[in-house]
């Protein structure tokens, strides 16, 4: 079986693919993500996922492999507080990407505490052999409990906020604060497994555990 080329340096995405039995080759992309800040989050994550996958394709990965690009944004579709103005993007939405430092991470966690936010993850897969490209979008809702300043500072001390959208990792200590999830847990982590499997099936790319064609529902249009 040919490896999966992951157009991302995210260890979480690599771990998810490896857990499915894939051999994973990670390739960095050369995309300036700020070029797409004018798009609404649900469109932006798909655009970035495609751009990342195409960037990896230009690097001449192993012939015939599948290339996976993904992008995740945490956002609130209905801004309610004046503090949220700091996180408004060019499209007018509140959009929380990777915090630039501890202070920004603190403000993100203050914003998320006691509220429900939306997590969009866009997914793009290119079959390098045929050039076919398929995309998918995962949208989930996460409810945080109210957070005290002491809880926020203690969480920041652990360093889990670094390099992740919204300044938290659902698979880490942030699970202590989450009251409810509606949607895809793996999509919130950064790689929606159901959507990935559906795309691989449509592309007739075999997964280590399941063979495409056995489950025609996933190939339906």
Structurally, how many domains make up the residues? Answer: 1
First-to-last CA distance: 26 Å
Structural class by sheet pairing and helices? alpha/beta
* Helix fraction by DSSP (H/I, runs of at least 4): 25-40%
Residue runs with pLDDT of under 50 for 5 or more positions: 212-221
Task: Give structural notes.
This protein is an alpha/beta fold and 221 residues long. The protein has one domain (4-219): Maf protein (Alpha-Beta Complex). 28% of the residues lie in helices and 22% in strands. The chain is built from six helices and seven strands. Strands 1, 2, 3, 4, 5, 6 and 7 form a seven-stranded mixed sheet that branches. The longest helix is centred in the first third of the chain and has 17 residues, at 41-57.
Keywords summarizing the entry:
Maf protein; 221 residues; disordered C terminus; seven-stranded mixed sheet; alpha/beta
Layout of strands and helices, then pairs:
Blueprint: E1 4-6, H1 11-19, E2 24-26, H2 41-57, E3 66-76, E4 94-96, H3 102-112, E5 116-127, E6 133-144, H4 149-158, E7 178-182, H5 185-189, H6 193-202
């Amino acid at each position: 079986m040919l490896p999966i080329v992951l157009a991302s340096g995210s260890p979480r995405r690599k771990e998810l693919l490896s857990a499915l039995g894939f051999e994973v080759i990670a390739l960095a992309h050369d995309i300036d993500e700020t070029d797409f800040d004018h798009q609404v989050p649900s469109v932006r994550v798909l655009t970035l996922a495609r751009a990342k996958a195409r960037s990896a394709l230009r690097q001449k990965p192993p012939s015939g492999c599948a290339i996976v690009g993904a992008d995740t944004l945490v956002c609130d579709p209905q801004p309610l507080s004046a503090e949220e103005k700091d996180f408004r993007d060019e499209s007018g939405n509140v959009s929380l990407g990777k915090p630039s430092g501890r202070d920004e991470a603190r403000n993100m966690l203050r914003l998320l505490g006691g509220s429900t936010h939306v997590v969009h993850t866009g997914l793009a897969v290119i079959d390098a052999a045929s050039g076919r490209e398929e995309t998918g979008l995962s949208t989930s809702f996460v409810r945080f409990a109210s957070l005290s300043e002491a809880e926020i500072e203690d969480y920041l001390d652990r360093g889990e906020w670094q390099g992740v959208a919204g300044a938290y990792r659902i698979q880490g200590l942030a699970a202590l604060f989450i009251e409810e999830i509606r949607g895809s847990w793996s999509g919130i982590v950064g790689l929606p497994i159901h959507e990935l499997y559906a795309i691989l099936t449509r592309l007739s790319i075999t997964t280590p555990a399941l063979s495409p064609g056995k489950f025609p529902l996933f190939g339906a249009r």
